Amino acid sequence: MRRTAVSLVAAAGILMAGTAGAAEDADKAEKMVKYRNSVFTVMAHNIHPLGAMLKGEMPYDPRTFAEKADRIAAVAPMALEGFGMKATADVKGTAAKAKIWDNMGDFKKKMRAMQKAAGALAAVEPGDSPASVKKATKALADTCEDCHDEYKKED
Ligand code: HEC
User: Fold this and answer.
1) What CATH class is the domain 29-151?
2) How many angstroms separate the alpha carbon of residue 60 from the centre of ligand 1?
3) The pLDDT value given to residue 108
4) CA–CA distance from 30 to each of 17, 35, 86, 107, 148 (Å)?
5) By C-alpha distance, which of 155, 146, 154, 121 is closest to 49?
6) How far is the CA of 128 from the centre of ligand 1 (A)?
7) What is the distance between the alpha carbons of residues 99 and 86, in angstroms, rounded to a whole number?
8) Whose CA is nearest to atom 38 of ligand 1?
9) CA–CA separation, 141 vs 153, rounded Å?
10) What's residue 22's pLDDT?
């Protein structure tokens, strides 16, 4: 009798641990989605003024340009960390397509292309020709689009 009670308690403990584990995973997945979207938000926030400067909608200022390019290059390598769990594809509101996790090699390749382009943009010198600054900015924006076309759901 006593033994049954003990094993029942033990079984209940295991069941509860199982439930807590699932809830913990869901919580982790939700945080991961928030994390990656925060990284993308920081990148988008910093790339927009670069586009505006190049289009003449904002005065071109090499120092502001360099500051924003540096920020993008600093956070670009963080984006991949936000895709560490396939379960994040099931988080409500995510725009990430589940096929990312079936094509992780290609997805990582696209992340690396973005990092490389961000590094090249951050290496632009204030004295560089407007044409080369424009080219480096467009090259980075193309890497965003290239991945979104394949792996991000339409808004
Ligand atoms: C290798 C793939 C990849 C690259 C490269 C990439 N993105 Fe994304 N991006 C995604 C995916 C996937 C999502 C959807 C994430 C989600 O909703 O969980 C996303 C979402 C976003 C969002 C929406 C954030 C939100 O809060 O909903 C913005 C903004 C964004 N990306 C901007 C950028 C910019 C700017 C670049 C380039 C500098 C870039 N992304 C490069 C894959 C990528």
Assistant:
1) mainly alpha
2) 26
3) 98
4) 20, 9, 12, 20, 20
5) 121
6) 29
7) 10
8) 144
9) 18
10) 86
State the DSSP code for 53. Answer: H
pTM: 0.89
Ligand 1 atom nearest to 151, measured from its CA = 12
Contact 54, 78 (CB under 8 A): no
* Nearest by Cα to 91 from 22, 147, 20, 26: 26
CB 76, CB 115: distance < 8 Å: yes
* DSSP letter (8 states) at residue 123: T
Q: How far is CA 10 from CA 18, 21, 45, 80, 149, in A?
A: 12, 16, 52, 40, 50
Contact indicator for 39, 78 with CB cutoff of 8 Å: yes
State which residues of the chain have pLDDT below 50.
none
